Amino acid sequence: MRITVWDLPLRLFHWLLVLAVTGALVTINLGGSWMEWHARFGLAVVGLMAFRLVWGVLGSTHSRFANFFPSLAAIGRYYRGQWQGLGHNPLGALSVYASLGLFAFQAISGLFASDDIAFGGPLTRAVSSSTVATLSSWHRQTEWWMYLLVGLHLLAIIIYRLRGKQLVGPMIHGQVDAHETTEKPRGGGLVAFIVTLLIAAAVVWAANGSWIPMPAPAPAPAW
Questions:
Q1: For the segment 150-200, what is each residue's pLDDT rounded down to a tens digit?
Q2: Which residues are CB-contacts of 17 (< 8 A; sequence separation ≥ 6)?
């Protein structure tokens, strides 16, 4: 029997996040006028992170964080070959939590980052210059951790594929093989999706800085 483990909103989130993160990494390396697109991709990541956090509570069974929390006991059972279940295994859950945490930090710190030349994040006017300098430094330094984490994720996909396990397919169609007695996922209906989408949209609006008053123009020089 095949059941849908990964619901459609989670799958859309996953692939949109892949596009947004890839776009952010490509444009930051291109620099120049591409920085405007880097900012747009960063805002997209902020919205996606907000969506995932809420969907981790309101989504269907295997989308909920409580369903795949990587406790020490679960990790121990996994390494002893005693873990059974659908969705993320404990090791995969660690990767998910690490990825979400790092991507969220990068996206949020980018809102306050500045290159001190021509580009500044949409919320730089909301904090002090020292805070901008600190977050800008952290934003640049943790970029390399993103490359490392993405590389490890791709390596895990290859290793699982060599072992005969498919990770990409289920994240496209959402289905996995299960026993006849396996309980089907619950929750994550239309109302939950709309609520999650509205919260994510509100977060993007707050992150774009349009609510921050523009500074008063400099006084005209006296002649």
A1: 898 889 889 888 988 888 888 999 888 776 556 778 889 999 999 999 999
A2: 45, 48, 52, 103
What is the rounded CA–CA span in Å between residue 25 and residue 41?
Answer: 9
Residue pair 200/48 in contact by the 8 Å Cβ criterion: yes
State the angle between helix axes of 129-141 and 90-111 in degrees (0 to 180), rounded to the nearest 10: 140
Helix (H, G, I), strand (E, B) or coil at 2: strand
Tell me the helix, strand and coil percentages in the chain, rounded to 5: 65, 5, 30
Q: What does CATH list as the number for 2-207?
A: 1.20.950
Domain segments of the chain: what residues? 2-207
Q: Are 10 and 59 in contact (CB under 8 A)?
A: yes
| Cα–Cα dist 184/169, whole Å | 19
pTM, full prediction: 0.91
Q: How many C-beta atoms lie closer than 10 Å to residue 104's C-beta?
A: 17
Residues 75/92, Cβ–Cβ less than 8 Å: no
Structure-token match 């006296």, residue found: 222
